[in-house]
Amino acid sequence: MKNFFISLATIAMMAFTAQVAVAQNDTTAAPDSAAATEEVAQAASANPFQAAPSEVPLHQQLKTKFIEGGPGFMASIILCLIFGLAISIERILYLSFSKTNTKKLLEKIEAALNEGGVEAAKEVCRTTRGPVASIFYQGFLRMDQGVEVVEKTVVSYGSVQMSLMENGLTWVALFIALSTSLGFLGTVVGMVQAFDAIQAAGDISPNVVAGGMKVALITTVGGLIVAIILQVFYNYIVSRIDSLSIDMEDASISLVDILVKYENKK
Fold this sequence. Notes:
Helix content is 86%, strand content 0%. It is mainly α and 266 residues long. The longest helix is centred in the C-terminal third of the chain and has 60 residues.
C-alpha cells in the first residue's frame, strides 16, 4: 500500500510541475500584466468607492509565488509535502485497519476456549484482523509450554507489532526537518543574492534589494507551512499508535487472566 501512495505522490508532483511550467510561460509571455495591475491598483486607491477588479484565483497566486520563490527550492519543499503526506495517509489507513474491538475479541476467545479449547481460540484469532489478534495467536501457539511462556511471547510479539505500526514515521520526521531546512536555506540564498545585487549596483535602493528578499521570504514561508502540516499529521499518527498500544497492553493482561482461569479449570 505504501508503494501505491508513493506512486500517487509522484504523479501528483509531475502534474504540479507541468502546471507550474505553464504558469511560468504565461508570466514571461505577458510582461504588461503587472503594469496593468499596478495601474488598476493606483486607480482604486485614488477612488476607493470604485468597484474592485476581479480577484486572481488562489491556484494562480500559488503558482506565481512558487515561481517567485525559486523553482529549485520550492520544488524541493513541495516534494517534501507530497511524499510526507503520502506516507502519513498510508500510516493512518494502516492504523485504522489495525483497530480492533478488544472487548469482543476477548469474549470470543474465552467462549472458544470453554467450548473447543486452544484450537478453537486459535481459529478466532486467525480470522480476526489487527495486531491484537496476531499477538494472541502467537501466544496460543506456545500454550503447551505454560501460561508464563505465553505471557512472555505476547510481550515480545507486542514489541514487534509496535515497530510495524511506527514504520515510516522516521521518514515523516525527516521531511518535516528537510522542509524547514530548505526554507531557511532559501532565505540565506536570497539574502546572498540581495547583497550581490547591492554590490553590483553600488546602491542600497529598495528595487535592488527587493528581488533577493522576496526569494528569502517566500521560501521561508513555504518551508514552515509544509513543516506545520506534516507535524500535525505526525502527532496525530503518534497519538493513534499510543492509543493502540494501550489497548494491546490492556488486552494482553486480560488474556493472561483468561488463560489462568482456563488452566485452573482443567
